[in-house]
């Protein structure tokens, strides 16, 4: 037993001695530690607009380190998956081309001398400047159709010449730029329409395909050239700044060559059948519609339109379910007849407003008609349901200079006032019977006016007036004005920081609220 204990003791002593010898063979020393500052916890940037610039501060435990021994990688990840490397320099300078989405951005610093990697991570949100703002359509200096946006995603700024960058062919005769919106995202489309073609764009990239025409969505048995169908009106318009509308389950499209298409979108695709610009008494006869679709902004369920061939107002009573339009009923004591054939008057202009006179809860529509003697008339009616209601008729007083010659009109929702433009001259006519007055606004300047439009979407209660002008040196200008509330005076007040220059020759504008 003593011999066994002796052997075990020697063995243990040998093991301890061996361990001490091995431990003494390691040469331990401190490595260069790096901490990274100057990187925010998150970044929100806009695709195709912003350049992401990050200039980190690198703190190292070793002094006077040769910077060439480090490698830098700015890595994009999503759902823990590597996607791309945005840069390989110590500072990031990245013009943003990433698709709109949420990402994780990692800065990886590799010390090639020690093969140690140091990581700094941040969240990155990429958006698009196109998802919220005013869509402007008109012509550029070459008289080609063009498309700008007054982006309001973050700050308010213009994004110019989007049609030229879309990949679509050159277009002529701009008609509209409009986001259809509604409650069914599958039927959202952003349209660019002109006299020589109408296309829907990718809502994120704003790129187009020549196959994505309006005609490609039309399936008709009528002898219509689908290649010549370009929307002049898409109804309903957006009714509020969030993108809601007065009726998201149906849609009407009135084309520049006078066809009216109407569909139900409830559970259905954005596809169009035979047009409804016809009467049941002569179903095969298509009637040419003027480029105005009249309806209640707050409740979209029917459309009043104007038959150019027969000079009469027609009514499409049930959007998406009626194959033909009706003759609205005229009564002896009405302020005006729907059928204008016997009056010598013809439609000059029409628009929808938020005016509620006569109990028109969801908004009245107005029309300007001119007779053979150049006398002008204003009709006010409630284009809602199967029996549109007439509210009033006004004979325009001769004090309204050149009213019949106006290039543009715009009806206030809150007052008995219509603004109109003749060349570079801006007028306001108060048509209140017995108190008619005319006003002119030289403060607008001497540039030709290219558009007048009251805001019935973003801030409908204020009902601000947008005025667009153009000259060859400063290009297009868009300004926003408030209209005074003094019932005895019409004036306009420019709204601070609501003027944009360097734009196209604006023809019309529409609001976009969502992607």
Query: Number of helix segments?
Result: 1
Distance between the termini: 89 Å
Per DSSP, what share of the residues sits in E-state strands of 2 or more residues? 35-45%
| Main pleated sheet | 5 strands, mixed
Mean pLDDT: 93
**Helix share of residues?**
under 10%
Number of strands: 35
Radius of gyration, taken over Cα atoms and rounded to an integer in Å: 33 Å
Derived from helix and strand composition plus strand pairing, the structural class reads mainly beta
Largest sheet strand order: 2-9-8-5-6
> So what's the overall shape?
elongated
Low-confidence stretches: 1-26
Write up what this structure looks like.
This protein is elongated. The N terminus is likely disordered. It is built from one helix and 35 strands. By secondary structure, it is mainly β. The strands form ten sheets. Strands 2-9-8-5-6 form a five-stranded mixed β-sheet, with no helix packed on it. Strands 12-11-10-35 form a four-stranded antiparallel β-sheet, with no helix packed on it. It has a four-stranded antiparallel β-sheet with strand order 13-14-15-16, with no helix packed on it.
